[in-house]
Amino acid sequence: MELKNNSQAPHRGTVEFVNGPVIRASGMREFAMREVVKVGPKRLMGEIIKMDGDEATIQVYEDTDGLRVYEEVVGTGEPLSVELGPGLIGSFFDGIGRPLDSLLEREGMYISPGTSVNMINRERLWEITPVAKTGDLVTGGVVLAEAQETPLLVHKIMTPPGFEGEITWIIPAGRHHAGGDVAKVKDAFGREVSIPIIQRWPVRTPRPYRERLLPNEPFVTGQRVIDGLFPLAKGGTACIPGGFGTGKTVTQHQLAKWGDAQVVIYIGCGERGNEMTDVLEQFPVLEDPRSGRPLMERTILIANTSNMPVAAREASIYTGITLAEYFRDMGYDVAIMADSTSRWAEALRELSGRLEEIPAEEGFPAYLPSRLAEFYERAGRVVTISGENGSVSVIGAVSPPGGDFTEPVTRHTKRFIRCFWGLDKNLANARHYPAISWTDSYSEYAGELDEWFCTNVDPRWGEVRGEVRNILAEDNKIQQVIKLVGEDVLPDDQRLIAFTAFLIKNGYLQQNSFGSDSYSPPLKGFEILSVILEFHHKAMELVRKDIPISLIKDDESVDAITHLRELAADDRAGFDNLRGRIDTHLKRVAAERTRKIRGGE
Ligand SMILES: Nc1ncnc2c1ncn2[C@@H]1O[C@H](COP(=O)(O)OP(=O)(O)OP(=O)(O)O)[C@@H](O)[C@H]1O
């Protein structure tokens, strides 16, 4: 992936023009498109984004204040790359992969321009166990050795993609520095090549895989509205658009904590300075609920510091997704969350303005959709080049100004994602959490995932899901009528639909992230819905026999439906007990009615 031979003397050019994070330089004929360069005496990091003869346009990832024309631009011979190896998990990086934890320690909250530091600490010792042995023939992606990176994750040190040869030396079991080699391999030309533990990969190039798999396994989140109505597949794409304070961050945290992934990559793109501090403060205290250990033991954070120029924010999502693909290649399920992609798109807009490009809608560049596609298209469940199954699921929050889902970032994002969890301001105002709208949201995976849920949860999964959606859609129309003429004029069958929808909303869709209901396994959600639907079917029979809805609703057993979520998923006796009480109540109502009719009342 090298752009040129590093042993050559670096190319040099001259700054001609500075416009914030965008500069133009001359004498650049020898440089390569997308090459990383160091600019000026502070050696600010930049990337060539346009070449025109002898001139190049460079986006600089650091503050260009004080930079002057005629200062030097020096090539590095490399595209923008990340380091891959043990030591990534639990770290905080900035958008271009500089480790914030060690920078914060060294430089404080405001990192000086030109500060360079390795992404992975070379000196750190790891207990490494070889997996391959001398004489093995290896190809790209083969696991050579393993290190217990954190109590929650084994790091697999692999051969780089595209590699082939015979192992002539393998690291012995024991404690080794991350900066060393893991193996030596004789390649097809008989040359002995060392494979380092820490490898590099250019962030804008997707890592290769063997085959894409169908998205037919769910990314179980433990959030009922998602798993039950708008499920995400492993390797799928989702977006969470929502206005200010509607619950994007809480939802992303829930997915990070409970989502079906061994590795979480969280990209915080904040506008306000304190948003980044929030991310850096909130994440380390989050607990992995399944193991009781810190969530950071399977998480990497990428936070864009408020004092970093927009270009670094633009790069952050590529840095994040490359790290995700690396762990996918080890055979892990990885979830990547970007909060919020609107701030990332604003970075694109600002850069485009500086480049004096002709703006498209609302000032965003015309290539906004293709950039969004580049990000979301790197999601997927795949067979890796070494034959393992791994996945990268991508979940992007969007913050549309004023909660308007027709603005360009939300609209274009919708073209590339298959799961849309729209947050509704009215629900958030009514403190219905998660405020995921059941009318605006959709999942294009639901059909493909039904089979998995039918096999692994209950054979009636698809049927129940369909009926619940119908009731909610019907209720939507009924609510419009109620708004106009009130509930009293509605026929009882419609009032029952509205009541069942109320039970679904309050007993199933609402889920408090901060209590014991924070994680709801699919089986529990299914049990709740089946109790609600059983009640609905029996109640509808009574309504058809002209039994007033007021009698049907009026019982403690019916009220108790909205408390079913307090039961544990495997509390079969608890669910059956309520089923029994509802049944007794409805039978009693029917019997009383029959007695009254016989008695001529
Ligand atoms: N699932 C939930 N359960 C309980 N409370 C919730 C839930 N979702 C959101 N909230 C409440 O809503 C508040 C705002 O949520 P959050 O900070 O996630 O919104 P946001 O959309 O990220 O806001 P911003 O636009 O400022 O980034 C939270 O502090 C919390 O009180």
From TrEMBL:
Keywords: ATP synthesis, ATP-binding, Hydrogen ion transport, Ion transport, Nucleotide-binding, Translocase, Transport. GO terms for molecular function: ATP binding; proton-transporting ATP synthase activity, rotational mechanism; proton-transporting ATPase activity, rotational mechanism. ATP binds at residues 242-249. Pfam families: ATP-synt_ab, ATP-synt_ab_N, ATP-synt_ab_Xtn, ATP-synt_VA_C. CDD domains: ATP-synt_V_A-type_alpha_C, V_A-ATPase_A. InterPro entries: ATP-synt_VA_C (IPR055190), ATP-synth_a_Xtn (IPR031686), ATP_synth_asu-like_sf (IPR023366), ATPase_F1/V1/A1_a/bsu_N (IPR004100), ATPase_F1/V1/A1_a/bsu_N_sf (IPR036121), ATPase_F1/V1/A1_a/bsu_nucl-bd (IPR000194), ATPase_F1/V1_b/a_C (IPR024034), P-loop_NTPase (IPR027417). Residues 450-546 form the ATP synthase A/B type C-terminal domain. Residues 18-77 form the ATPase F1/V1/A1 complex alpha/beta subunit N-terminal domain. Residues 118-204 form the ATPsynthase alpha/beta subunit barrel-sandwich domain. Residues 222-443 form the ATPase F1/V1/A1 complex alpha/beta subunit nucleotide-binding domain. It comes from the Bacteria. One of its GO terms (cellular component) is proton-transporting ATP synthase complex. One of its GO terms (biological process) is proton motive force-driven plasma membrane ATP synthesis. Its EC number is 7.1.2.2. Belongs to the ATPase alpha/beta chains family. Produces ATP from ADP in the presence of a proton gradient across the membrane. The V-type alpha chain is a catalytic subunit. This is V-type ATP synthase alpha chain. It comes from Synergistes jonesii. The lineage of its organism: Bacteria, Thermotogati, Synergistota, Synergistia, Synergistales.
